[in-house]
Write a structure and sequence with these properties.
The chain has 2 helices and 9 strands; from the N terminus they run E-E-E-E-E-H-E-E-E-E-H. By secondary structure, the chain is α+β, with helices and mostly antiparallel strands.
Length: about 140
């Protein structure tokens, strides 16, 4: 019998040629005091570049992502996760949506991905957020 790591996408921006998503794992969270941290990764895939960047996420990061979705709905740029992180991204709700993934200061690589999202991309990402919140609460 193998242990299967349970993971869910916190969000996904995708078109037929490329995508940027964040996958959160729920197995064996790191606990420090009252806070639990979950292993996650930014996953970028396109015909030009593929990459994965590791993150540790806490409940407050989910709250921050919800605020980002509100900002995106209002037509504003959003940067996530907040704080001093090695890997982070910025989303610009333009046509097409632009997702910029940054790995700094370690490699200092920055990749900007224009994505032709579907009309319901905000709603789909709110559903993903709700699923991750439910899994975190277990």
């Amino acid at each position: 019998m193998t242990d299967e790591v349970q993971a869910r996408e916190l969000f996904r921006f995708a078109d037929p040629g490329q995508s940027v998503s964040v996958e959160v794992e729920f197995q064996d969270p790191l606990t420090t005091g009252q806070e639990r941290y979950f292993t996650a990764r930014i996953v970028l895939e396109s015909g030009f570049v593929r990459g994965r960047l590791g993150l540790l996420l806490a409940s407050r990061d989910l709250d921050d992502w919800e605020r980002c979705l509100d900002a995106l709905r209002a037509g504003e740029r959003a940067t996530w996760p907040s704080g001093d992180r090695v890997a982070w991204l910025e989303v610009a709700p333009e046509d097409p949506v632009e997702v910029t993934v940054r790995d700094s200061p370690s490699t200092q690589i920055v990749v900007r991905v224009p994505i032709d999202v579907t009309d319901d991309w905000l709603e789909e990402n709110r559903v993903r957020l709700a699923r991750v919140r439910k899994a975190v609460e277990r």
